[in-house]
Every structure is written in structure tokens, then in C-alpha cells.
């Protein structure tokens, strides 16, 4: 239990109606979760406005309401707290409620369009292997040292986030590595957190459904770096044209990594094969198990971060060379028939191009590349035609199929993908709406030596159709089919 006044430190309070001496047992931003003694924050969202539920929250027992405007009717015994921005205040209140856990950990945030899960996961595993207790907050799963906590978002809401961080502190963790999505920055999910550092991977096309313009998407990512303190480091990819933009208004200590341009941390790709990458990192040649030139960037980002967190260079490289990638990221099997199947989470045009150009670089020459690809429903529609065209440009055969259609009509999503395919690429594309059938067909088509890329869903264990998540595991189905045909 904690008193209202202690929760409000740093929350940007404009005015208060009622006492701040009351004790609060729970904080929430969803009126349906209010229980007697709760604080309810009314947040303006994308489809509703939390202010509509203030009355209901008070009736259900909320004793404190955080809002941007007072309701017409204020109830006795309830304290109303007016703030400039409820979502931002909620982040600070959540931190205070859980004892400001980010002050007690060295928290590093990773942002960018692609590579966040890979970099954050590698950092987590690296620090665990170096002998520390660490935490991970990621798209695939969260970890409190060796306890797994299922993940619902790339970056959770501020209450779940601070609760996770507090559990990490209780478990004795020294470090936490987390993904920072652009949604999280705009929705203030990270407000009130103290970061030891921030890492930028890259910026390409995604989430324009939410941010509307590329500029707004860029500003969201930049917002994370603008908010870092002067004791924190900001490590950016100097080969990405937006790397420098991220640093424009940050008060943090600025560092860069690069393969091509000048950078504080430099690497060169010596070999890029199916068995891994041979990199020259600051004069030292090291083999890594991760595949593909984009992973050279991810590895260098991890290396730079570890050094900025004062780790020993030789130990970092030794451990890093033993680590494998995150689940569902260039996750491959070679069937007895000699057909290679790759499951990858590529769900942006840039990621699709990267994974296919990697396959192109490492294949021996004569094999066919068959790509199975769909696009998520209720997500950025503008990436659909581009992803289909990129897949065709880089493959011998493409099967257009469903990803997570969510509330949309799967056929319509596929039609939008088809619209992006140029006349000369049309002959390569085939549509099979049912994802399982698409996988079966690809395995049937493939000959020994051929490569099947199953893009878009990576680690996901479900397919979301009209609000229902049906069990679906790309890797499991692909393996079943590959072995059946062997
Ligand atoms: C579009 C979006 O990002 N929505 C997120 C947002 O919800 P919202 O604020 O828009 O919700 P809303 O429905 O408009 O409701 C507004 C407010 O009214 C409240 N409410 C609503 C109904 C009611 O009866 N009572 C009540 O109090 C809601 O709790 C909310 O506070 O804030 C919620 C709490 O943080 C999130 O759970 C929710 O994520 C939805 C489920 C989602 O799908 N988000 C995806 C797009 C997302 O966040 N993705 C990113 C990036 C992915 C990546 O690239 O890796 C991520 O970080 O996961
Ligand atoms: N540094 C990188 N540059 C470009 N593409 C990458 C990079 N790292 C990974 N990818 C590609 O992007 C896909 C997603 O990678 P990862 O899950 O690490 O990114 P993410 O930023 O966490 O994605 P999301 O925002 O959806 O959670 C991978 O499966 C791979 O195809
Ligand atoms: N975190 C990303 C994942 C997309 C994965 C893809 N399978 C899809 O459903 O679009 C998002 O929510 O946009
Ligand atoms: Mg991720």
C-alpha cells in the first residue's frame, strides 16, 4: 500500500480535488480492472477515451482518478488528479508504485524497425553467460533471470513493465535489456523509466497505419533518444541514414557502430555462410553462429553495448561467438531430402529483402528459392504490395498466403499484395490462402537442394483470425511436411 501523494512525485500534476493521504492498493488504466482502493488513470487511446469510463471506475471502487479534465460529476471520497497527459503521468505513477525499479537496474532499451528482438535477446543471453543475473523484455518472451514470463507486446504497458522490472530487482538482476517499440514511445509506455543506455538498429518502412507518415515514425524513435539522461549512452548504427537523426537532440553520451562508415565500434564481414559469419571486429577475427549480413549489425550493436556497459572485450567476444539467434529468426532445418526450410519473422519490406539477399549470398547457385509470404491484417497496408514485389524479385517462386488476417478478409489482403507485383514477376506468384496448404504445396514443389523461406510469423504459435488465436506453428508444420516428403 502506498499513499496517493507518494505516487504523484514527478507526475506533472496540475491540480487536485480531494485528499492525497489515501492509500492505494492497485493502479490501472482499464475501468474493467478496477477493484476497491484502486487508482484509475483515464488515458486517451486509439479507439476509446478512458475519460468515458471515469464514472464507472469510481462506482467500482476507485479512490483516485488521474485525468486530463475533471468529470462533470465528482464523487465523494474520490480524489481527482488533473494532469497534462494521463499516459505520461501513468508511466511515472507506475514507476513510483513499484519503487522505481529502473533506478536499481542498468536498463538498456533497443529500438529500430528490425533487429530489436535479436539484439535484446543476445544481450540478455550474453550477460547471463558472463555471470550476471539479467532480465529481458521482448516480443518473443520476457525473462526474469531464468524465469520465463509470456510476452503480449514488444513493449508492455507501463504497469506490467514496472511490475516486471520490480520482479527483476527482487530476483537480484543487475541488468535488463528491453525492446522499445515506436508505439511504446508515442503512448508513453516508457515514461518515468531511467535508462542506462539506448541502442538504435535501423529505420525502414513499417507501422505507417499507426504513425501515418514516415516522419512521424522517425520522430517516435527519436523521442526515445531525446528522453535519455546525460549519464546514459546512445549507441546508433552510423550506416543507417537516420542514425545521426536519432542523436540530434539527445543529452546522452553519443556512440556509433558501423560496417561501412566511420564509427566508434567497427566490424568487417570476412565470410558470410550458412554455418555463420566470420567478422573482423576491431582487428580481431571471430566466427559467430548467426547468419546473414544484417546479423553483423546486430552482433556489432551487442558488442558495442556490452563494452559501453564496461564488459571485458575478450570475454564478450568469446561468449558471443557461442550464441545462437532468437527463436524464429533465420531458424532453419535441412530435411533428409536435402531441402532446406527457413522460418523467419521478416514482416517488413526491408526484412524480407535482407533475409532473401542473405539466402542469395549463401546458396550454392542452382537451387530454387520458394518463398511463402503473407501480411498481417489490421496493420500497415502500404507495406503489402512492396513486400510481395520484393519477395518476387528475390525468389524463383512465391506463394502468397495469409499471415494473421485479424479482423480483415484474407483474400483482400492478398489482393493488395498482388497489386504490387510487376507484370514480369506475375508468373512467379501463386496464391494459396490457407497457410498450412501453402506450406504443404511448397514442400511438394521443392526438389533436393531447394530452399523454402517461410516468412512473417517466426516464433508465433498461433494464427489470429477474426479475434480468435488458433494454434499454428510455422516451424512445426514445415518440419512435418519436409519429413513427410523425404
Ligand atoms: C493500437 C495500440 O497500440 N493500442 C494499445 C493501447 O490501447 P489504446 O490506448 O489504444 O486502447 P483503447 O481501446 O483506445 O482504449 C483507451 C483507454 O480506455 C480504456 N478503457 C477501454 C474500455 C473500457 O471499458 N474501459 C476502459 O477503461 C483502455 O484501457 C485504454 O486505457 O494501449 C494498450 C495498453 O498499453 C495496448 O494494450 C494496446 O495495444 C494493442 C492491443 C495492440 O495491438 N498494439 C500493437 C499494435 C502494439 O502495441 N505493437 C507494438 C509494436 C510491435 C512491434 O513492432 O514489435 C508493441 O509494442 O507491441
Ligand atoms: N539488423 C537488421 N536489419 C534488417 N533486418 C533485420 C535485422 N535484424 C533482423 N532482421 C530481420 O527482421 C526480422 C525481425 O527481426 P527481430 O525480431 O530481431 O526484429 P524486431 O525489431 O524485434 O521486430 P518486431 O518489431 O516485429 O518485434 C528477422 O526475422 C530478420 O528477417
Ligand atoms: N509486432 C509486429 C509483428 C507482426 C508480425 C506479423 N506476423 C503480423 O501479424 O503482422 C506487429 O504487431 O506489427
Ligand atoms: Mg521484436
UniProtKB/TrEMBL annotation:
Annotated UDP-N-acetyl-alpha-D-muramoyl-L-alanyl-D-glutamate binding sites: 31, 154-155, 181, 187, 189
E.C. no: 6.3.2.13
GO cellular component, one term: cytoplasm
Motif Meso-diaminopimelate recognition motif in this chain: 403-406
Enzyme class: ligase
Names of the cofactor(s): Mg(2+)
Binding site for ATP: 112-118
Subcellular location: Cytoplasm
Family named by the database record: Belongs to the MurCDEF family. MurE subfamily.
HAMAP family, per database record: MurE
Protein name: UDP-N-acetylmuramoyl-L-alanyl-D-glutamate--2,6-diaminopimelate ligase
